[in-house]
Amino acid sequence: MTKPTTLPSQKKLQELFDYRDGQLYWKERIHSSIDLSKPAGDIDTNGYRRIQIEGKRYKAHRLIWKYHYGKDPKEFIDHIDGNKINNDIKNLRESTRQQNGFNRGPQKNNKLGIKGVIKYGNKYRAAIRINGKEKHLGMFFTIEEARLVREEAEKKLFKEFSVLNRKERYEIKDTSNGKKKEK
Length: 183
Known about the structure:
Layout: H1 10-16, E1 17-20, E2 23-26, E3 42-43, E4 49-53, E5 56-59, H2 60-69, E6 76-79, E7 92-95, H3 97-102, E8 117-120, E9 123-130, E10 133-140, H4 143-158, E11 171-173, E12 180-182
Antiparallel strand pairs: 1-2, 3-4, 4-5, 6-7, 8-9, 9-10, 11-12
Helix pairs in contact: 1-2
């Protein structure tokens, strides 16, 4: 893992920005393109707000962490609700790379829409990845059985970083007609 860029000091951040509504706002117009009424920065191609300070770009959630706690995050900052632009300090927590990954929903190419469940012949296979190793959880006749076993394993192993502990849950794809249904 590459070491994250050292962030500006807390003092510097508090001189440059006001924090309100989960966002940083410039205190002064240091460039003609800055609108003091709008959150500082822009949204990058990965969906995160980023802010440029003295020619360097930083992720806003990392700056907000330092603004409040006065220290650089040890590794990652996790958005508890999974919303990359919800930078309310109550929605941010330090995490490891692995913990940050736990809090993700299924990948976009997931045909079933259920994290850790795949169709395998006429059955469904449930698995979970922890510490870089995949753990086989079993083969099931129904998608619902596989989902329930996978969810129980996730709650037990991922604890507070489980996507299942978020208020907004991911959607399951109905494979019979391609439409999504809410879980």
